[in-house]
Amino acid sequence: MAEPLQLSLGRQIRPLPQHVAIIMDGNGRWAKQRGLPRLAGHRAGTANIRRVIEVFAEHEVKYLTLYAFSTENWGRPKNEVRGLLRILGGVIDRETDNLRKNGVQLRHLGRLDDLSPRLQRAVQRAIELTKDNTRITVSVAFNYGSRDEIVNAVRQIVRDGVSPPAIDEELINGYLYTSGLPDPDLIIRTAGEVRLSNFLLWQAAYSEYYSTPTYWPDFEEGEIQRALLAYSQRQRRFGALHPREPS
Question: Most CB contacts within 10 A, which of 47, 147, 186, 221?
Fold first, then answer.
């Protein structure tokens, strides 16, 4: 594993992203490399979440979105899905008070109605207990799919009787699960893949992308520093020319 960069990010790297989104990939491959069952990889990946949140909070990133379970993941083997849901419930029970004390506000992106009543209550409790925190907002995309999100938004717009001339980007943004959040500046994917996998398709229109071969359980401070450094070296044009470029 590469050595961590010796940087004081808050002082030396500019600009930093306001909102980072992460596709947490590679738990199963991490476990396979070690001769462990896949659920052991998911447990290791879940244990890494607290550390990652703290690093981003220390570097004054205000919004962090984690892709934990997609609407397509229900197609995985039933034992793995049940295990993932148990792990999620356990993490919420263990970590909510600690996150509340450390200034973390939790949000959920996705459908709650497919989860068990107990898990729904645990998620809602975590959201309620942390709603006034302002250090960093962590959105967990669980049972989330971006196409499903957009379809749901359109259906709700129709149900609300909005006239076609009134529909614009701002209105649609208000109907998405991410309503109230800024679009992600940087999207990181671990485990070497370079696709979005139905994650924040609307919101990622002008995001910067960063892929690392590191599996999610091993994604630590040095890897975060490399991603933030790469972001700081990008020129974001949002479809226009950079001021120093010839027209």
Answer: 186
- 4 lies in some domain: no
Q: Please state the φ and ψ torsions of residue 141, each to the nearest 5 degrees.
A: -85, 100
Specify if 156 maps to a domain.
Answer: no
Q: Which residue has the tokens 């975590």?
A: 126
Q: pTM to 2 decimals?
A: 0.90
Residue pair 105/131 in contact by the 8 Å Cβ criterion? yes
Task: Give buried/exposed letters for 172-199 (b at 16+ CB in 10 A, else e).
Answer: bbebbbbeebebbbbbbbbbeeeebebb
Four-point Cα dihedral 126, 128, 134, 138, nearest 10: 40
Tell me whether residue 25 is one of the annotated catalytic residues: yes
Residue 109: strand, helix, or coil:
strand
| Domain extent for 99 | 14-145+181-232
Mean pLDDT, the chain, rounded, equals 92
Whether 75 is in a domain gets the answer: yes
The answer to whether 218 is a known catalytic residue is no
Q: Which of 27, 48, 73, 97 is catalytic?
A: 73
Whole-number Å distance between alpha carbons of 116 and 85:
9
Report the domain count for the chain.
Answer: 1
CATH number at residue 30: 3.40.1180.10
- Per-residue pLDDT tens for 46-98? 999 999 999 999 999 999 999 999 999 999 999 999 999 999 888 998 999 99
Give the closest residue to 8 by CA, choosing from 230, 242, 221, 244: 221
H or E, element range at 20:
strand 19-23
Judged by DSSP in three states, 223 sits in helix
